Automatic annotation (TrEMBL):
UniProt xrefs under InterPro entries: HI_0220.2 (IPR047124), Uracil-DNA_glycosylase-like (IPR005122), Uracil-DNA_glycosylase-like_sf (IPR036895)
Source superkingdom: Bacteria
Pfam families cross-referenced by the UniProt entry: UDG
Annotated protein name in UniProt: Uracil-DNA glycosylase
Domain Uracil-DNA glycosylase-like: 31-194
Amino acid sequence: MTTSPDLEDVLSDIRACRACLGDLPHEPRPVVRVFPETRLLICGQAPGRRVHESGLPFTDPSGDRLRDWMGVDYETFYADHRIGVAAQAFCYPGTAPQKHGRSGGDYPPPKRCATLWRPRLLEALPRMELTLLVGGHAQVWALGERARASMTDTVRAWREYAPDILPMPHPSWRNTAWLRRNPWFEAEVVPYLRQRVRGILYA
Ligand code: SF4
């Protein structure tokens, strides 16, 4: 299938975007991976340092955990164009300095990115069936007043947003303790996610 003109245009504009030049501690390098066939969109926070370097989303331990949750292997994740990745911001925002001996987390995604690009990008994806809202930033932006007071509460209310949207925690190692505290996520939400992914890829 050839790329629809709208999607081709918006992707080309996004890849050329330098709106955050001067605000980021490095040259912007937008990372986005969607196709005319995309039916499942993964919307995380922003690329991390490793993705900034590789130019491919989720080529990191977070990606390994996400693929495990989805029930897809590395090859399928990148080869099947029904899976797309478009984070809340497309450029790595940089990492906060270490504090009290602990490595700092990444800075929040630049807010202007979603405002500038998301409506146009989503409009150019007519086959969308399921959006994974990965982490609080993506949930607040996409759900607005429908988001609960915290990421945990929003994910716990996942049934309210089905079948178009599935809110999830970020698969980062930083959330390992969260996963231990909230075993219902892997017991209830992950099986639903795998079933939906199977339905989109193999039905
Ligand atoms: S984060 Fe978004 S708005 Fe900022 S430079 Fe990258 S693509 Fe442009």
